[in-house]
Amino acid sequence: MSxxxxxxxxxxxxxxxxxxxxxxxxxxLLSVMDRSSFSVNLIYSFAIxxxxxxxxxxxxxxxxxxxxxxxxxxxxxxxxxRGFPGWGWxxxxxxxxxxxxxxxxxxxxxxxxxxxxxxMRQWGSPSTRVTIVVSVLGTLVSVFVxxxxxxxxxxxxxxxxxxxxxxxxxxxxxxxxxxxxxxFNTLANxxxxxxxxxPKAQAMLDQLIGFLRGTxxxxxxxxxxxxxxxxxxxDYLALLKVRMGDRLQVQFDLPAALADAPVAPLLLQxxxxxxxxxxxxxxxxGGRIAVSARQDGAHLLLCVRDTGRGLxxxxxxGTRFGxxxxxxxxxxxxxxxxxxxxxPVDDAEGGTLATVRIPLKTPTD
Length: 365
Hints:
Layout: H1 5-34, H2 38-73, H3 87-113, H4 126-196, H5 198-218, E1 224-225, H6 226-244, E2 248-253, E3 262-263, H7 269-280, E4 287-296, E5 299-306, H8 311-314, H9 321-334, E6 339-344, E7 352-359
Parallel strand pairs: 2-4
Antiparallel strand pairs: 1-3, 4-5, 5-7, 6-7
Helix pairs in contact: 1-2, 1-4, 2-3, 2-4, 3-4, 4-5, 4-9, 5-6, 7-9
């Protein structure tokens, strides 16, 4: 996984801030130890520390980048982590920084302060030795800590990417299982109707062709507007109404403000199919199915209510494949942010209410 430019600069800024704080702390420590000038110690600490950091940090990033470019040039997949070319390369880079950093930093500080007593001519001075040793050791520790932090951050990012890929693959598998399940039930009903009422079977077949034509595009995208989901449900229920006739009454309630809210395709279709198969179809008089949407704070509530036989009558029937599909898809798409409930309706009409609660997103989210 290639790093985003923003994440690279965030890491560099974080390293620079860390180094500035470290160098300031070293200057305070040196001033307390030898009662010397804080400003002079600060200049030398900053110069030595930043030179060491620039050589080591720039060296490790540059080496990792070059190694990845060489692998790509050879037709191989880039596998070197950003900012960590491996300890085989890190050790020479750190040794180079420890050697050149103090020399360059001391020379720069001498030029700034105009004081050569801490410079190249008096390396044996206790103050010089303490300044160099503490600055170098502090720089090495900070580079090591920041390198390990970046490696952990990269590992977490890769793990999250793998989890997202696994969830997307699981979702595609669930959708591929859902479509044949719906077709199997519809074709089974069509087969029965052919023997009982051929004209109705022909009309049902025409509706099925229209339904599949409209659903084909929607089932191949990750999300579509809620109005499209309702339109597909209307097609599906029109298909079933050919067979059930006046025994099936349909009601839709989609507020205009929610029409463009993005949802996963075929999210409600298993709930509608479950209401028909286990609630309304076995009931001699049929009944009504109502599909509605409403906003509840930051969430979208999608409800499928039927006036069929209710949960108790249908508890032992069917495999409940469609309901499990809904639960699995919600888990893959939204994790713990989604809820699915199936409950009896306690009113004069009775029946079952299926409620899906998901985060409400705008089309641009």
